[in-house]
Specification:
This protein is α+β, with helices and mostly antiparallel strands. It folds into 2 domains: 112 residues; 30 residues. 20% of the residues lie in helices and 60% in strands. The chain is built from 1 helix and 7 strands, in the order E-E-E-E-E-E-E-H. The protein has a 7-stranded antiparallel sheet with strand order 1-2-3-4-5-6-7, with no helix packed on it. The protein is extended. The protein starts with a strand and ends with a helix.
Length: 146
């Protein structure tokens, strides 16, 4: 377990733009990769009457030996997300991790689709309705075959 100190500053500007900045300081944890410091920034503004979220982050972590090499890494990321339709949100970004161990170097685009919880309920309801229809059809077929 790691003890951390988190500082956060949130503000809603007169223009309606929301911004937030987080800074996290973490204590060393023996034999575990642990956050030393991280920064996160987020801005939410309106684009075509919907909230566009832009975020960026940086994290510095170390504290573990792997194959006799101290593992230390820095991770940078950026992301933009935007609601598309009926609670479905799309996101696109990029994440880069620079590590003292080459195996852990990563530089990759990130993509995401977030569905609202009520969509899952509708899908489950639809599946249940489909099962009921199939049961009903099976019953009718048995009656017609006798």
């Amino acid at each position: 377990m790691q003890n951390q100190l988190l500082l956060r500053y949130d503000t809603i500007h007169l223009s309606g733009v929301h911004s937030a900045i987080d800074v996290t300081f973490g204590e060393a944890v023996e034999n575990q990769l642990a956050t030393k410091i991280s920064f996160k920034a987020k801005v939410i503004t309106k684009l075509v009457k919907k909230p566009l979220t832009l975020s960026a982050s940086y994290a510095d972590a170390d504290g573990v030996m792997l194959f006799g090499v101290e593992r230390s890494e820095e991770t940078y990321s950026i992301c933009a997300s935007y609601p598309l339709w009926r609670g479905i949100t799309a996101s696109i970004g990029h994440r880069t991790t620079n590590s003292t161990i080459d195996f852990f170097h990563v530089s990759t685009p990130t993509f995401g689709i977030q569905l609202p919880s009520d969509v899952m309920w509708i899908l489950l309801l639809t599946a249940e309705q489909w099962r009921a229809v199939m049961r009903s059809n099976a019953s009718e077929n048995r009656l017609n075959n006798t």
